[in-house]
Design goal:
The complex is a heterodimer of chains A (281) and B (621). With 281 residues, chain A is an all-alpha fold. Chain A has one domain. Chain A contains twelve helices and one strand. In chain B, the strands form two sheets. Chain B has a three-stranded antiparallel beta sheet. In chain B, strands 1-2 form a two-stranded antiparallel sheet. The chains are: A mainly alpha (281), B mainly alpha (621).
């Protein structure tokens, strides 16, 4: 990909993310036979939140929230610039760490519970991402994301199981049902997000948009060489995740962990074995 | 050069004796002076010596070694009788039998007993500098211990004795000498764990003793095997010279067993966990920074011969398993030192695995991990000592009081844990390299590579969870800090911890230089190949690995610096609000989450035993 396109994408990531989030709300609403908010609603939210009275619990908490946003943006930047895949995963992990630490830093029960659950959900999706990254290495011979684009076939053809594993953990990363324990609105009133308000909440909110761009970029990588396949996969993942969100109830964190480690992890592992044997062949 | 190296051996022994007889103030000066001398010496030696140096001890030294051997074994026998410990007695008998047999049938005449190459110099630097810092710390720590004055001097004396033994271990070539010094470290470990003389200390000390004796027995078996097969001298260099033959596999397996036991890999991890009842300087010195580092050291020494053999594969599988299992075990602990112990075992597993894979990048990763883990764990354990002495708590869940009463200590604990987790600290780079190089292993060893990658990925995620948990405990605070006053602790504590902090920060800033000037030369000599590092733009390449500098710099700003800044930043012109609790006004107290791993632990032990048996079986196939 051209460097200018990459940089443009990085700079515009929050805006694109906002649009995606807005479209998502409309799609979800239409699935529920509602009309839904305007597509630009996330941006209207942004202006409204910026206008609110600034209140924080304490500076550490607010600062960590803002830096969570920036570090997640940075992780996305490294991904879009074609950097080392494992480094990208670690950077994403560590930006989530900032959110977890923010959750632990206040003396709020809901925030604390949310941080606990976010930490557990990290355990649910990270090993699988690393396995997918290593499988990619087996096929392309390099850990750089840019090598996926120079590979001759779309990854989906060679590693369908990896795509399946990624789809299975996408709801965990995007905090959508049935794996949205980290932010369970009805249980822990939003978890870590609760203690943020106004412009500081906007930081967390925008971080969620960037997280979505991150996840859908990972999906796009499976059809990297062919933009049509890539976009098709992204659309498919988008519809799948939202349909699943609309139609399923939340599971407990233990069930989420068990699902991820007994179903998604073996699928990723079998994929890794297949990739290794394919490589030797 | 040889006199300088010998002084690294002799000076601690002399100081060990002097500390027992000198009055307190004089011995303090002596300890600090020795600390400085030892550190300066090891630094000078590292810079000055380029090629491996072989030298031999004077003629009478052989007799001294043999006599010391038997004296040591007689002491162990006395311990076994006095404490009525069957296992210790059994091990001692076996070792006595082997020693007497070897004494009666000596192998060929070996004239060169010591071999000091860059790896030994690397270990010298780590051992002497870290031990010196810990000795200075213990001056104050042991002063506040509830025991007689003589026992306090005895403690310091054994610490120095141990430094001498460690220096000797990493420079011995002759396996008989190596056995003696290995067992001397076991002796030091036993005496220091039992220092507090209560029932649990003695029990754990005996466990440490017999488990490590199995390691010693393995070394004796190696010597026996080499003499029996007529390989020539029982030395490391001789073993390496026979690399590639199938008959060398048994000595390699035996020495690896000794290494794995010393490194507290499962099923032998119980001794390290039990050793945490010892005074904190002991935990810092023996059981995280130096003695357990003998384990990756042995494997690194043997790596040219070990690489690609079935023995290496079993080691890789075992350590991968231990990495994941001990990370899980760490999640169940509340005692701060035990959390650190579990995390030590996990990272040791990673180091041993890297050394066993034996390619250019993995050896560098192993060296990186050894150095930075040593510094970070030392800092964390010394902090545990401060928490114990100054703030009077040992459980991690009590740490939420720390942010208000001890901001500087909580800051140091946070930095300690962050240096194990975050980029661009060395431990992170080591973990990152390890995943990437395991990918290259999987090309040749397919199923093994895949399994180990899963274990590392999973274990890494669990360890990250552990570190988040603990840092989260530290970062909790009630509200804004109005006046951040750093607390005042004794200068012995303050200065040593600050020196370690300086090392951590220097390690970050100097990391690219450390790779070229420090790790690559050591790795080159260990492997016997020239390792070349190229730079394209702002990326460093070694073999197949590339280290992009700019993302790491930005990551450094965004992650550790952020967390540190978060402790001090203050927003102005912003209102404060209380936390939301549905309108209730109850006081909440927070702890953290724990996972109960009791059901899993027997399985872990069983799997560990299976691996050890596999290690020996694979030699026969």
């Amino acid at each position: 990909m051209d460097l200018y396109i990459q940089i443009a994408l990085i700079v515009l990531a929050p805006f694109i993310g906002g649009l995606v989030y807005g479209i998502e709300r409309v799609v979800k609403a239409r699935m529920q036979r509602r009309i839904g908010p305007p597509i630009l609603q996330p941006f209207y939210d942004f202006f409204k939140l910026a206008d609110k009275r600034k209140m924080i619990v304490h500076s550490t908490h607010a600062f960590l929230g803002i830096m969570h946003f920036f570090s997640l943006w940075f992780a996305l930047a490294v991904l879009l610039l074609g950097g080392d895949f494992i480094l990208v995963i670690f950077l994403h992990l560590l930006s989530t760490a900032l959110l977890i630490l923010a959750g632990y830093s206040t003396r709020s029960i809901f925030s604390h519970l949310g941080a606990n659950r976010t930490a557990v959900s990290v355990l649910a999706y990270e090993p699988i991402l690393i396995l997918v990254a290593v499988s990619v290495y087996m096929l392309t011979g390099s850990f750089d994301v840019s090598s996926i684009f120079s590979y001759d076939e779309p990854l989906l053809v060679k590693m369908p199981l990896a795509f399946l594993a990624l789809l299975l953990i996408l709801p965990i990363k995007l905090k959508k049902s049935p794996f949205d324990v980290a932010e369970a609105h009805q249980e822990i009133t939003g978890g870590v997000e609760l203690e943020y308000s106004g412009i500081f909440y906007e930081a967390i909110y925008t971080a969620k948009w960037i997280d979505e761009i991150f996840c859908y970029t990972l999906v796009y990588l499976f059809g990297a060489n062919n933009p049509l396949i890539g976009l098709g996969l992204v659309l498919f993942a988008f519809v799948f995740v939202n349909a699943l969100d609309n139609s399923s109830a939340r599971v407990s964190y233990k069930q989420m962990l068990r699902f991820s480690l007994t179903i998604a992890l073996p699928i990723a592992f079998i994929n890794l074995l297949l990739a290794i044997f394919q490589q030797v062949l | 050069m040889v006199p300088f190296i010998s002084s690294l051996f002799l000076l601690p022994v002399i100081v060990s004796g002097l500390v027992l007889i000198l009055p307190k103030n004089l011995s303090r000066v002596l300890v600090i002076a020795t600390a400085v001398i030892l550190s300066a010496l090891s630094l000078y030696l590292f810079i000055a010596i380029d090629q491996p140096l072989k030298f031999s001890a004077p003629e009478y030294f052989n007799q001294v070694v043999v006599a010391a051997d038997f004296l040591l074994l007689l002491f162990f026998a006395w311990v076994a009788i006095k404490r009525k410990s069957l296992l210790v007695g059994l091990m001692t008998l076996l070792q006595l039998g082997a020693s007497i047999y070897l004494f009666k049938n000596p192998g060929s005449e070996n004239t060169v007993q010591f071999y000091v190459d860059k790896l030994s110099l690397f270990m010298f630097l780590l051992i002497n500098v870290i031990s010196s810092i810990i000795c200075i710390f213990s001056l104050k720590y042991i002063d506040e211990e509830d025991c007689s004055n003589f026992r306090k001097k005895y403690f310091l004396s054994i610490l120095f004795w141990f430094i001498a033994a460690m220096n000797l271990v990493v420079s011995s070539d002759n396996l008989e000498y190596f056995f003696l010094f290995f067992e001397l470290t076991t002796l030091a470990s036993f005496l220091l764990i039992a220092f507090r003389k209560d029932e649990i200390s003695v029990r754990n000390a005996l466990t440490a003793l017999w488990m490590n004796q199995i390691g010693g027995l393995a070394i004796l078996a190696t010597i026996f095997f080499i003499n029996y097969n007529g390989y020539g001298e029982a030395t490391f260099t001789n073993l390496l010279a026979h690399a590639g033959t199938t008959t060398i596999l048994l000595p390699l397996a035996l020495l690896s067993i000794a290494a794995l036991i010393k490194g507290a890999q499962m099923p032998f991890s119980k001794w390290l966990l039990g050793a945490m009842v010892a005074p904190t300087p002991v935990s810092a010195l023996l059981h995280s920074s130096t003695m357990v580092k003998i384990a990756p050291f042995i494997i690194l020494r043997l790596s040219p011969a070990l690489q690609g053999t079935p023995v290496a594969w079993v080691i890789i599988a075992l350590t991968g398993f231990v990495f994941a299992a001990s990370a899980i075990g760490a999640l169940s602990q509340d005692n701060f030192k035990r959390i650190l112990a579990h995390s030590t075992i996990a990272l040791l597993a990673l180091m041993i695995m890297m050394a066993a894979v034996g390619t250019q990048v993995t050896i560098i990763a192993a060296l990186t991990l050894i150095l930075f883990h040593g510094i970070s764990k030392c800092m964390l354990f010394l902090n545990a000592g401060v928490l114990e002495r100054v703030f009077h708590f040992k459980q991690a869940s009590d740490m939420d009081r720390l942010a208000e009463s001890g901001p500087f200590t909580s800051f140091l604990v946070a930095i300690g844990f962050m240096s194990l987790l975050l980029p661009p600290f060395g431990a992170f780079i080591g973990k990152w390299f390890s995943i990437e190089t395991l990918g290259s292993l999987a090309v040749t060893q397919r199923i093994l590579g895949a399994l180990v990658i899963v274990l590392i990925a999973f274990g890494g995620a669990v360890l990250s969870l552990l570190y988040f948990k603990v840092i989260g405990l530290i970062i909790a605070r009630k509200g804004e800090h109005d006046k951040l006053k750093f607390e005042h602790t004794s200068p012995y504590y303050n200065v040593t911890l600050n020196i370690l902090l300086a090392f951590v920060i220097a390690g970050v800033i100097g990391f690219p230089f450390l790779i070229t000037d420090y790790f690559i030369p050591v790795a080159s000599q260990t492997l016997g190949q020239e390792i070349v590092m190229t730079t394209t733009g702002l990326t460093m390449h070694i073999g197949q690995m590339s280290l992009p500098i700019i993302p790491l710099i930005i990551a450094f700003l965004l992650l550790p610096v952020t967390i540190v800044l978060a402790l001090f930043v203050r927003f102005k012109n912003v209102d404060r609000a209380k936390e939301y609790a549905c309108g209730e006004k109850v006081n909440y107290s927070f702890s953290t989450m724990y996972f109960s791993t009791d059901k899993a632990t027997p399985y872990f032990t069983a799997v560990g035993i299976l691996f050890f048996i596999a290690l020996l079986v694979v030699v026969l196939i």
